[in-house]
Amino acid sequence: MLGSGAKATKPSFVSYISPEEIHIKEPVEKEVNLHLLPGELLLCEANTVYKYIQEDGSNRGTCGKLVCTNFKIAFLNDDSASDDNDPQFKNKIVGENDITLQCVDQIYGVYDEKKKLLTGQLKKYPEKLIIYCKDLRVFNFCLRYTKEEEVKRIVSGIVHHSQTPKLLKRLFLFSYASAAPNNTEGRNETVMFDTFEDWRDELERTKGHVKYKVVTTNEGYRVSEKLPLYFVVPICVSEESIVKYEGRGIPIWCFSCHNGAALLKMSTFPKEQDDSTSQMQKAFLDGIYKTISKPPYELLKTEDLSSSLPSLQDIQTAYTKFKQLFLIDNSTDFWATDVKWFSLLESTNWLEIIRRVLKKAIEVAEYLERQHTNVLLIEESATDLCCVISSLVQVMMDSYSRTKLGFQSLIQKEWVIGGHRFLDRCNHLHKSDKEEAPVFLLLLNCVWQLVQQYPPAFEFTETYLTVLSDSLYVPIFSTFFFNTQHQRDTSTSGEILQSQSSPFRFLTVWDWSVQFDCKAQAFLNNPIYAEKPKPDKTQRKNTRFKHQRQLSLPLTQAKSSTKRGFFREETDHLIKNILGKRIGKFINSSDEPPNSFREFYDSWHSKPVDYHGLLLPRIDGPEIKVWAQRYLRWIPEAQIQGGGTIATATKILDLIEEVKSLQVKMDEKHSQAISGDVHSVPMLRSSARLSSLFPFALLQRQSIKPALPTSTWKDLEDEDDLVKRDDEFVDLSGDI
């Protein structure tokens, strides 16, 4: 008899049954049907496949069928057909045992207990298959009991369809769009920025229409296929210059601050140019700078992000090292890495990159907010780090960007229409690993730092950010599967789909009803969001910029009139000009006090937080943390029952429910209707039964080792009584 706590005794017989056969459930006769989406085709399948659940060094699992379609890899077993234990947070497109082909990161085969990376044509087929996913799930399949022909078909099929280079038109995105019903009834309130009116309205919203204009020069993509159809430039920029230089060297508007200062971005000219062309381009740039920078009233600060921030290659290298810490095969590997967790985490440099990016965003916000200075972000293509910094600055300075609709519109404007190369950066087509870099994921990590530091300032939750990161790999939405607006438009109505008999429209990821029902969508809304109060119309003139904390943050503790300080700065610049001190096109860092940033940063953090004003992240030391929900959600050892943020959220939701109940009673008593919009909240009564990483991870199992700090575990490793404890867990994410 096998006992979990009994000492091993000398066997009196020889067993010819493997450990896997002892623990794995017997195959079931019940047929489980594969649910196929419109346009989804079954490519290959294998029966009698065992999916392992790695538990405390022993192999446990269930028997089922492994299938591969043109959309996903799926494991089907008896549990797949049961709806009795459906989680509260369920994705309608991608199930618990589904892996979209774009979500597959690496595939390993196990040969005689040795792992080997599987690529291309295989000469020998493995007895075990390990699939590492981009959302950090790890699947272990045993093929030892599967028919040899089925093993060949399923392994070859999975490797071929998920790892080999493919053409754009071979993405499931097109199969789904051509087969799915053209349902446009769903209302999408997100501003898509694909029309002239969208850009005009955004200019008016930010009061930028006085100095900037929407141009139609690129209609029909006659100037450049890399530029969007419509974009915003300074009024002084002529359409002729845009056409002449194909959009390069043109300052493109991103955002206007309440005080009139603007954030712009610009792509650079090609480096390889002859002398005459270079001189002509230099003269053109000088003219551009002079039109934006008009001392003493308007100044321009340029930020070359290529030299001040890590390169895309550095970002990719850091993230590759970082994600390895969370691709855990089993409990043994988890505890092995736990011994040197902090040194491993530091060596990845991922958190340091996040800190540097946030610091740069704060520096840009300082120029805009305190110094009333236009900022021009410069990058080779202006579609990578420019997108990150411009988005972060707007999240920090514009409270509208901290609402769900505002944030989605921001992503559309700066990333989707702005020309971020999602197809290349996510390597969806497996064309070139050199182009791959988690730039958008870097933004989400930075925004998460703000969300977890200032929860009431955001209408959305960290769960929203997590499912948004997962949606990068769901190829039924066009949002993250094109490089440019031109590529998207030509794919919809151009050469790729000439054979299409009826027109269709790609789905957008912003229609969350496609992935989640109403109950699940409630987890995306923040119940403690401090909604912006509606302004009093009688005092509109006096509260024009009420949503901002203040017009200008002084460098010193001395309190002075904001208006007076604003004009004093202008006067100082004017005096410098009169005295003959030339104010050039650039404000060099040497012209600024060396502690300007620190004083701005400390001054802001010394005051109470206005959740609808300027928001600066804390970036010192341990303030930059690991996004626990995203990176630890599949690791049971990192979970605690009834603890973590979910325990706090449950109490808050209970209070909200109680307040709503009291409000109903009061309204009934006075025969009044309930007024105002109230977020629907999910019912989470028994927090003690939930995982700290809910809603993605329910309580599945516990590790045989208690989740204690490494030093404590090392000291108490031999104490059986501690090993057997079930209720004394410490949230590992708190130390991260």
Shape: globular
Mean pLDDT, to the nearest integer, reads 79
The helix tally amounts to 24
What radius of gyration results from the CA coordinates? Answer: 28 Å
Unreliable spans are: 1-17, 19-25, 539-593, 673-678, 699-736
Largest sheet: 8 strands, antiparallel
Q: Give the termini separation.
A: 41 Å
- Strand-residue proportion: 5-15%
Class by SSE composition: alpha+beta
Helix content: 25-40%
Count of extended strands: 14
Strand order of the largest sheet: 4-3-2-1-8-7-5-6
GO cellular component, one term: sarcomere
Family: Belongs to the protein-tyrosine phosphatase family. Non-receptor class myotubularin subfamily.
Protein name: Myotubularin-related protein 12
Main location: cytoplasm
Offer a few descriptive terms.
sarcoplasmic reticulum, about 725 residues, eight-stranded antiparallel β-sheet, disordered C terminus, globular
Would you mind describing this structure in some detail?
The chain has 736 residues and is an alpha+beta fold. Among the domains are: 42-164, Pleckstrin-homology domain (PH domain)/Phosphotyrosine-binding domain (PTB) (PH-domain like, Roll); 196-328 and 355-445 and 476-511, no CATH class. Helices cover 34% and strands 12% of the residues. It contains 24 helices and 14 strands. The protein has an eight-stranded antiparallel sheet. The protein has a four-stranded mixed sheet with strand order 11-12-14-13. A two-stranded antiparallel sheet has the order 9-10. A hairpin with a 5-residue loop joins β11 and β12 (262-267). α12 runs parallel beside α15. The model is unreliable at 1-17, 19-25, 539-593, 673-678 and 699-736 (pLDDT under 50).
